[in-house]
Design a protein that fits this description.
Chain lengths: 589, 246
Amino acid sequence: MATTLPHKDVAIIGLGWTGSILAYELATAGLDVIAIERGPWRDTATDFPPTWAQDELRYGVRLDLFQRPAQSTMTLRNKISQTALPVRQFSSFLPGNGLGGAGVHWNGMNYRFLPTDYQLRTHVTQKYGAKAIPDDMTIQDFPMTYEELEPHFDRFEKLAGISGKAGNLNGQIQPGGNPFEGPRSAEYPNPPNRQPYGATLFAKAAAELGYHPFPVPSANLSQPYTNTLGVAMGQCTFCGFCERFGCGNYAKSSAQTCVMPALVRQKNFTARMNANVTKINLDSTGKKATGVTYVDDTGAEFIQPADMVAVCAFSFNSVHLLLLSGIGQPYDPVANTGQVGRNFAYQCTSSVLVQLPKDTKLNPFVAGGAVGTVIDDFNGDNFDHTGLGFIGGGVLQATSTGGRPITQISAFKDTPKWGAGWKQAMQDNYQTIYPLGTQGNVCAYRDAYLDLDPTYKDPYGSPLLRLTFDWHPNELKMSAYITEKLAGIGKAMGATRIESAPRTGPYTVVPYQTTHTTGGAITGDSPSNSVVNKYLQSWDVSNVFVFGASAFPQNSGYNPTGTVGGMTYFAIDQIKSQYLKNPGPLVPA
Amino acid sequence: MAKGLRRRLFLVSGISVMACGAATQALALDASQWSLGWDSMPQAVQPGPWTFFTADEGAAVEALADRLIPSDDLSPGGKDVGVAVYIDRQLSGPFGRDAGLYMQPPFADGLPGQGPQSPLTPAERYRKTLSALDSFCKSAYLGKSFVDLSGDEQDKLIAQMEAGTLALQGANAKAFFQLLWQNTKEGFFADPIYGGNREMAGWKMIGFPGTHYDYSDWIDKHNQPIPLQPVGIADHPDWSQPTAQS
């Protein structure tokens, strides 16, 4: 028997980046806000103290900060004809959990997508012709432009204290930054980080080859900073425990370090932790949400009535909740009907190992999650794709994130796997192999999607989400092309040996690749091509909003957080200025 | 653990942070070294008898670890750095039970890309395979156990397990090898607080200084040695005795 709780103006599902920003904006606008988070409360001082946060086994291998598969996971298959099986332990991607969500354990690379990325189908069609887009490729334009989002990217960067160097200030190309980026209205709030040795070798080699290296825009702060909410942050100390770890020194931007200290002062904000939302409740018309149902960690069920529901979970979980709640029509790839679950996308990563001369001291443990140098010359449409047979590209990066010994010592394929030969290779490689990487785009396809699994259930008896995904020729060709370019830079770094590993199929759920999963609740200009409108509002149930990367129609060759942050502020502006005065559809269907 | 639970009952300036009913406590108590997902410090592995292995199992894992990571000029061997102690403590803790993983049936083999699908927990896999390996050795080597074989014979068997060509009764030798090798690397390179990597031997072999928190002075001192002594979560070679001795 569920207990019905007192009414709130807004129920927010998930207390990570988007949930905390939305909660702050709506609570300071005077609304009574509750955030319901499946995982635990986490603070810097208590959960990531520098005395024991740097524990590779616990966080890097056993994944202690992450979503527990026992609590929720998904099933996976490559093709519609196969039987999906559960992801019993996470590996390829690592959904976050608890206060801060995936924004706790991220590396902190903070990009904006390219202006052409937001109008991808239109741009490709105009430049390369409609035939450049295969029949099964379901890419589409975002319903908003880079120009519309720009002030909101800037706002997010100032909230998060991003450290970087502008490459395009109001249309003027700036030396040292990314000359391919869209025009920025302002410099980054903090200067770029200092560079470790391997990244400087990459920068030099890339420049010699005529490319345009720049320091990766980073949420690892280069200096102490007080952000736009008045929250003080620390400076990155390059400890080399960033991705998969919380930061003990308030130097990595997250909900904890950027938003919560201001949010917890709002008396009209409540956080309900260890509470799993199982359903968004609808009224008898099915067109209006009445609140949410959640189960706490004793198994007790509660109904939280609310006028507005914001889904701010990890991308998979947001789509899962829409499907379980019957909001929108589930996507059917065979009939090609419905929208919820459509256009799942990922990122297509690859690597190049660069071995430097024997006495080199790379000191790989001196590192940050987003400390290093990248080039954007082979991303998006920054290079001519005529005759290449693919669209898109990716960042090429020299951003080694640490020298953690269980998981981060590189080895060539012919290295002995154990024994004395393995030991010698580990000792030789540790200081001499620099791993370069690519982060390639992934287009959307008719057969890459999310729906409910017919067999496997979660602990609440609900069907698990089912992921159907495989690489397509476009992404494999893209990966081969940009990985070869990356190897060229590696050679120019003075390599004594190079080993390239472009992505090959099929998609596998091991090993780790990236946590940048997108789509399933995409944004578009019509209910016939999307789940949410440009303000992330459900077309079907207008008092439900769905934030996060689940809104991307396809994925670009960048880390997604900067774009998620910008889209969040863009939607919040409209919610505050229009929706709260006159609740209802913000865009006519 | 008490600290972690207590902290979640507090009320601060209008926020009620609710948590910690029976299910949370069950989850928290299901951990020996830290409370899964909570803000508890790891507990140092204590010296003493095996907590999971039988004497024979422990001896076999020590012998296996000593071939996977042999003693040489670069470091002491797997046995002496405590790999078997590390694995023993892991197997009697949440890792050994697959705590937190999705272990609901039905189980099917699936494609390699679908990831691990076995219903066997790590603890069950060790128990089963070590027993099968012992039976195999006794039958193939005239009553000898794995520990009694020569180094070359042991290496040959390990290579066969790795390649999946060793047929063990009722056990998947290849899957065991993968688990054993992963755990052996962990026992060599994880923080010494977990019972392996004794005296930071694994870290010293590669030159990893451990859990230093601040390299601000070193980020732009390029291509030169960094003369820092390794330090762990709970100890430093200059401060204390190694954390665990078996």
